[in-house]
Amino acid sequence: MNGMVRSDRFKALVVTCENGDTRAEIRQLSEHQLPEGEVLVGITYSSLNYKDGLAVAGRGKIVARYPHVPGVDFAGKVLHSSSEDFHPGEEVLLTGWGVGERHWGGFSQRARVRSEWLVHMPAGLDAKRAMIIGSAGLTAMLCVMTLEEAGITPDSGPVVVTGAAGGVGSIAVVLLSQLGYEVAAVTGRASTHPFLRELGATQLLSREEMSLPPRPLESQRWAGGIDVVGGVMLARVLAETRYGGAVAATGLAGDAMLTTSVMPFILRNVSLRGTESVTTPRPLRERAWSRLSELLPQKSYQSISKIISLEEVEAAARAILAGEIRGRVLVDPNL
Ligand SMILES: NC(=O)c1ccc[n+]([C@@H]2O[C@H](COP(=O)([O-])OP(=O)(O)OC[C@H]3O[C@@H](n4cnc5c(N)ncnc54)[C@H](OP(=O)(O)O)[C@@H]3O)[C@@H](O)[C@H]2O)c1
Questions:
Q1: For residues 208 and 211, what is the distance between their CA atoms, to the nearest angstrom?
Q2: Which of 218, 39, 168 is nearest to 111 (CA)?
Q3: 320 lines ligand 1 (CB under 6 A)
Q4: Domain 9-121+304-332 has what CATH class?
Q5: Per CATH, the architecture of 134-274 is what?
Q6: Which member of 48, 52, 211, 217 has the lowest number of beta carbons within 10 Å of its beta carbon?
Q7: Whose CA is nearest to atom 14 of ligand 1?
């Protein structure tokens, strides 16, 4: 801190709930109000995810206790640390672990967290890039790694990505196409077709056609799939997956339920693999971050992001719940 005394006061978006009435407002807080943890971080950027939309709106039972500071991921600099793993001035990032849900999160100028939740900033990234990637990008990378583990290579055939214009989907499209896979993108918004082509999708499919209830087995189209939608769309992806293919399921943007037959599994050796990024162990998490840093091209950092202030979070949260957000929204708490 260059010998300067740091003020104990800072700004955060605080969500309260009284008699079922949820409100989000900007408040001045003091460091002593922050939850316990070994590391105090000065936040440079956070990002807006679907779960944050739910938390700000008081929906989906995302928030454990009120008052609450949402924001499931953040990146910034260590201000104070009682952990040997982190030192003041080091750049760090955090995604998952219930931060922004059970623990106060990133829609704030400061956060105090447990050291094991933090990751040192990987080489080649900074706070802004890390948050353009965010939980959504980490999840997308882990889904790609899930397909790789299942033996799906670019030579296996096309990979379909659902919810492709959203946070996880758009980064999955970029990563797959950078790795040389042929990518088919499913979106409900025809207006995003040029954007998805720019990211590397070569086939575009409508949400409508992929939401038709499938027969137990359909024509074999996909070597693999990354699904953020769930429900009928996931059932259709499974029914259309080629012999020996694999599907990584990671979201429920459409429906949490899945009704399918066993036919893709027992007649085509298709595997359905769950992928989560919230409590991913640190070694795998670090491997995924370092691959993200290598794989994402410079131009993708511009085309998929927009920056908003804490004051603008409430409106953006409504938009993400309404499915109106394209790509990634960054939150700069210092704006
Ligand atoms: N398992 C994990 O660890 C993990 C981590 C991160 C996220 N997730 C989950 O992954 C999902 C996507 O997250 P995200 O941050 O990418 O959200 P997002 O930015 O809102 O993207 C979701 C996309 O899904 C599509 N979609 C939305 N509603 C739909 C519907 N009713 N039917 C069909 N498609 C629909 C839309 O894509 P188009 O506009 O292109 O149609 C939307 O952009 C969420 O369910 C989230 O909870 C899970």
A1: 5
A2: 39
A3: yes
A4: alpha beta
A5: 3-Layer(aba) Sandwich (3.40)
A6: 217
A7: 167
